[in-house]
Each structure stands twice: as structure tokens, then as C-alpha cells.
Amino acid sequence: MSALAIVAFFVALLAIILIHEFGHYLLARRFGFRVLEYFVGFGPKLWSFRRGEIEYGLKAIPAGGYVKIAGMNPFENDVPPGDEDRAYGAKPVRQRALVILAGPLSHFLVAAIIFSALLMTTGETDRTRVSVISDVPAELEPGRPSPAAVAGGVADVAKYTRVSIVQIGHAFGPQGVVRVFHLLFEGAPRNQGDVASVVGVSQQVGAIGATGNWAAFFWVFAYVTLFIGIINLVPLPPFDGGHLAILLIEKARGRKIDMRKIVPVSAAVLLFLGFFVISTMVLDIWKPVPIGP
User: Fold this and answer.
1) Is the dihedral of CA 208, 209, 214, 220 positive or negative?
2) 21 is an active site residue
3) Is 282 helix (H, G, I), strand (E, B) or coil?
4) Which end of the chain has a smaller Cβ tally under 10 Å, C or N?
5) Rg of the chain in Å (alpha carbons)
6) Mind listing the pLDDT tens digit for each residue in 58-80?
7) pLDDT tens digit sequence for 1-27
8) Please, are residues 200 and 291 in contact by the beta-carbon 8 Å criterion?
9) Beta strands in 70-151 (DSSP E)
10) d(CA 230, CA 163)
11) 157: buried, middle or exposed (CB in 10 Å: 19+, 13-18, 0-12)?
């Protein structure tokens, strides 16, 4: 069951990537943007096919995905002749913002659906305790969910959003970075409050799978889904939140920003994120986070 839970977790993460990118794709197509590619993964191309004007496919490194919209890359002239009015920069700020926002918002929707399903079936959302909503019947009559249960799929998203924001600030702020250095170079022991990479989370998921508690598995997955969505809203490029921040600045200034000037910021963010991810993966292998109840 442990191995099955880990495999299911990674398959579910892949599904979230597809849903996230589908959010961008759906709104881009709805507003008439020129979509060039819809790929899962990065790096060398493994497989692809073309349908209409869009190339769909799979790349070698399954660490994300992307929807390529003509005109988004400032260093690439990828706008097909005659499609200039369909390029990213040619569209109204409102439409560009909605296309960007559609990806992260899909995480909140998926998390809300999972939390609602857990409340309606088990009365629980937290893997460590029973939700207060569990004191109310999950169904008033067959097939009809209790309004209190439904109100709880919404309340829990808000609650865990707040928790995630606090954890993101803690993990990526000065205190979190110093903590990683202490763990790496000073022999400090891990504790349950330490940030974990996907390796650490999969270890937790494996432990949950070993108990056969699939409700807890779905709770962890919903929380991770929500956490990733919030990370995507951080107002720094290359996150979706960074693109939204740029659009907000453009709207306030009344003129476009030269995206080539933003590249150094994106590179610095990616460098920091790469260091953080690799460091936490090393720690998860070397000093796993203690698995508790």
C-alpha cells in the first residue's frame, strides 16, 4: 500500500500540472490568443502531435508543464505572420490577467472539491484531527449533502490557504533559509515543522498509505495542491503571480514593461528556488522529517 500511495501521489501531481496548464489553455483559447504549444514536462521532446495550429506533447523532465502563447517570450519572435493581433502583448490587460490567473485558481478549485468530498463522506479533512463539521450529518437525505458540510469544502480552503501563506513566509524567509543552512552544515536534527521537498512529502504519503488511510492521503494531496497554487501566486517572475504583478504595474503606468529587463529577476528567483529545492531534497534523503500522527 505504501508504494501504491506514492505512485498515486505522483500520478495525481501530474494530473494537477495538466489541470493547471489547461486553465491557462482554456482561457487563452476563449479570448483568441495564439496558442503555439501545450506540453507536459521540460527538456527534450519525447512525443508530440499537432492538431490544428497547436502542438501537444510530452517532454523528458516531468517537473511541470507549460502552455506557450505567441509573444510571451521577449527573446523569441514566435508570432506567426498575420497573427499579430492574437499575440499575448496585443490583448487587453484584463484578458491577459485572467489567462494567467486561471492556472493557480484551478488548484483552489481542485482542493475545494477534495475537501468537500472528504467532509461529505468521512466528516474529516485534517489527517490529525476530526473537523468540527463532523459533528453535523454529512447528508440530510440520500444524495443531498448537508449545507454545513458544503460550507465546511469552502471554509477549509480558506483555512489552509492562511496556513500555507504563513508556511511559505516561514520557509522562504530569512528564518527558513537559515534553518536549511543549520540542517545542512551544523548537524541540526529535522523536526516535523521543517519544510520538505516532494521527496519528503512522498515519504509522508508512503507512511499514510501503509496504514490504508486513504482519506488522509487525499487530505495531504489537497493541501499540497493548494500550497502549489499559492506558491504560483507569489508576485515574483517567473511565477504566475509575477506576471500578474507586471500587468498591474503596466496598468498603473499606462505603458508596457520591457520584459527583457525582467529576465535577471526571473533568473535570481529560479536560482534561489533551485538551491532551496535541491537542499530540501538532500535533507529529505539524508535526514527525513520525522513521521508522526
Assistant:
1) positive
2) yes
3) helix
4) C
5) 21
6) 999 877 889 999 999 988 899 99
7) 688 889 999 999 989 999 999 999 999
8) no
9) 139-141, 144-145
10) 11
11) buried
What is residue 130's predicted lDDT score, i.e. its pLDDT? Answer: 37
Burial class (CB in 10 A: 0-12, 13-18, 19+), 190: middle
Closest alpha carbon to 177 in 275, 268, 266:
275
Asked if the bond preceding 145 is cis, omega within 30° of 0, the reply is no
Q: Which three cell numbers stand for residue 262?
A: 525582467
Strand, helix or coil at 65? strand
pLDDT of residue 78: 93
CA atoms within 13 A on the CB side of 209: 16
Instruction: Pick the closest to residue 268 from 236, 223, 231, 245 (CA basis).
Output: 236
Residue 132 pLDDT exceeds 80: no
Provide the pLDDT confidence category of residue 210 given band limits of 50, 70 and 90: confident
One-letter amino acid of 193: G
The full 3-state SS of 252-279, as one line of letters, equals: HHCCCCCHHHCHHHHHHHHHHHHHHHHH
Kindly name the residue from 21, 55, 139, 141 that is annotated as catalytic. 21
Residue 246 C-alpha cell reads as 507586471
What is the distance, to the nearest Å, from the Cα of residue 154 to the centroid of all Cα atoms in its chain?
18
Average pLDDT value for residue range 248-270: 91
